[in-house]
Every structure is written in structure tokens, then in C-alpha cells.
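User: Here's a chain of 134 residues. Predict its fold as C-alpha cells.
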Amino acid sequence: MDELAKLKDIKPPVNIDTHLQELAIYVGAGFGLLLLAIAVVLIYLLIFKKRRRRKKLSPKELALKALKELNYSNTKDAVYNFSVNAQKLANSEQQEQLQEILKSLEKYKYKKEVDSLSGSDVNRMKEFIGKLRI
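Assistant: Prediction complete.
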């Protein structure tokens, strides 16, 4: 019987005064935060997909871009890049003009030390690049 005396009674459930209005505030705030989080995630995904969906440039577009960004102060690179990329873009009508330009540019190739590009060569290259279309 001593053991039974040591046992304590189970306490009844505690009654917490929670009004329905307080509960509605917390549920509404939680729902609002959830909607805000979903909106932020959707906006991020739309921006990320838009960046990822950027059009990849075709080889001809890359060649035209490289031609437009030629650095004429670096003679050997300019002549090499012009000869490689212009041949990709020149149509049959432009081939003759391209061959003339390339022939005049040969003096800048195959040498260890070369002079800077002459103004007439630079102008001819720029005119040819301006006429190119994809």
C-alpha cells in the first residue's frame, strides 16, 4: 500500500485561452509567408530559365562578332582572325574581293616581326566586314 501512496494523480488537461481571432492571425500570417516564399521561388525560376534559354550563336554569327571586334593594333592576330572568319561569311559574289584583300594581307603573315597594318588595309577590311551578312 505504500507504493500506492507514493503515486500521484494525473493532472487534468490545462485549459489555454485561445481565441479564434488570435488563431486566425497566426494561420493567416503563416499562409502569407508561404505565398511569399512561393512567389519568390517562381520569380527566381523564371529569371533563371530566361538566362538559360538565351539563344546560342551559330558559327556564322560568332564569326561576324569576332570580325566586328577585331583589334587592329595587334597586326598578326587581326590578319589571321580576318582571314579565317571572313572566309566563313563571304558569299560567292564576295569571294573575289576577299581574295584581293587576303593577297594584300599576306605581307603581314608568315614573318616573325611585322609592321602595323596600313590605313588602306584597315579600311578595306572594315568595308568588307560592313558588307557581310549572315
